[in-house]
Amino acid sequence: MVRVAGNGSVNFGGDGGLASMSDLSTPIGLAGLSDGGVVIADTDNNRVRMIPGTTLHAYGRTLEAHHIYTILGDGSIGPTIAGSLGTRTSIGEPVAVAVDALNDIFALSRLSNQLFVIPANGESFLGRPVQAGHVYLVAGDGSSGFSGDGGRPRWRVSRTSRRLRLIRMGSLSLTAGTAGSGTWHCNLASNLARRG
Known about the structure:
4-stranded antiparallel β-sheet, Neuraminidase, mainly beta
């Protein structure tokens, strides 16, 4: 086992520096990148952070290999403002993250019960114009519970949801953490969500 991030201190710090020297606070969700890097749901710091395995230009800036960067969240708890720069808005307790083949990051907020995407590069995301490094709402109407089966992906997200994975391009799976709560499948291309 190799430590890739965190120095053992429960705090926030180290952004832009070597990931091994950074501070984390309850990093609940992780997602691997194709280059060997990782995306972290730094839950109690109210941030989504990234450690690229290779130096790359994405999210509107250059990210050095093995350094840690905040991609979403300013550390505050409040509403996530869709369309704003990811580092200039809040995300309340991100608990799950996923990454697609284009390095677009999906993040699930436990406090807002919403799922967001931060595109790595600009132009469009499933036919919608987007800007690199800005945050966009994918699903969730802000309330907790079961709703929207078979409808547009503005469904409610359970506070117990913990796992988020990309099944294939344009399709996400969100699994709640309690027995009987089930799994949501969200087809982003058709704008339909279903449970089961």
